[in-house]
Write a structure and sequence with these properties.
Length: 191
């Protein structure tokens, strides 16, 4: 599926928003991806999860892990398609950790699935947790890579769509963006 069709799906489902947004990083952007809006539709959840699963079908995967909250729905469907256990990591006191009785055993092959990355910070934190617990990272899968492919998290990394994220520091915003009221739709506090 080509990039334009995927972007059309995001626009159609209102998952790609236009306006003035403050990102988790504290930067300002004229666009925002709310992947949960597209993944609420079973046909698109299955479509995107199938694309990821097809890419990793010949990779040994014992479990799929996703950072909460954004990656959970997609990661669960990818795990179902790969017939692999699915778990998630979440923040406790600001630190990404694996809890709720989930575990990773030594030498288990783990696929990390995330909905959207800009810097890859949450995925890096999950990778650290997996490695700390003795797991082996088999790959990283991303629905939307807002770094336009500049963030390389793993040698076996797959992104469904790569887009350039335009963002500005608060003191360097263009005037047309300054004139639009700020929205903060994300799940984490902004800086």
């Amino acid at each position: 599926m080509d990039k334009e069709k995927i972007v059309d799906i995001f626009k159609e489902t209102e998952a790609l928003l236009s306006g003035h947004f403050v990102l988790t990083s504290g930067k300002h952007s004229p666009s925002y991806f709310q992947c949960a809006k597209v993944l609420q539709y079973p046909k698109y959840l299955t479509l995107f999860a199938s694309m990821i699963a097809d890419n990793f079908i010949s990779t040994k995967i014992d479990a799929v892990i996703s950072p909460a909250i954004g990656g959970i729905v997609l990661g669960t469907e990818v795990g179902r398609l790969l017939n692999a256990r699915t778990i998630f990591a979440e923040r406790k006191n600001g630190v990404m950790c694996i809890r709720r009785g989930f575990n990773i055993k030594k030498n288990q092959n783990i696929l990390i699935v995330e909905d959207v990355i800009t810097t890859g910070g949450s995925v890096k934190e999950v990778m650290s947790e997996v490695i700390k617990l003795g797991g082996l990272i088999s790959g990283v899968a991303i629905l939307v890579d807002r770094s336009n492919g500049t963030i390389n998290l793993h040698k076996n990394q797959y992104s469904i769509v790569k887009l350039e994220a335009v963002s500005y520091d608060a003191d360097r915003m263009p005037n047309n963006l300054k004139e639009i009221p700020v929205q903060k739709p994300g799940s984490r506090k902004t800086l």
